[in-house]
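Write out the 3D structure for:
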Amino acid sequence: MARKTSRFTVADEGRDKGKVFLLQEMPASLGERWAARAFLAMAQNGIELPDGLQDAGFAGLASYGLTMIGKLPFEIADVLMEEMFRCVQIIPDPSNDFARSLVEDDIEEIGTRVKLRIAVFKLHADFSKAAAPSTSAQA
């Protein structure tokens, strides 16, 4: 089975309105490493994790949204958040399926970056709700 993908179209007014992005789930090995780094960083910085969260991997972390990452020092959170953008490509012409890697000018609004990050979390959380059911509200 192929990794999950979804399209994200910017609906908000601004320079990014109408732009279409392709989101793709991380391969299992990268998702596992990303989650391990996030959990280790949280533990090293004294952040309490909800019971069982460390056993749920990226899906478990994603079910709590950006709030857990937001408790980390910027230097650590920044690396993790930027790695999430490896899951995002732009579809320059929405009338076809061609997607390419992002370049700096593809996203011109801060709000678009935040919404894309949330969408990446949701993409990863949805693939494994049965394995890691959320005990809190979605971000």
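The mean pLDDT is 82.
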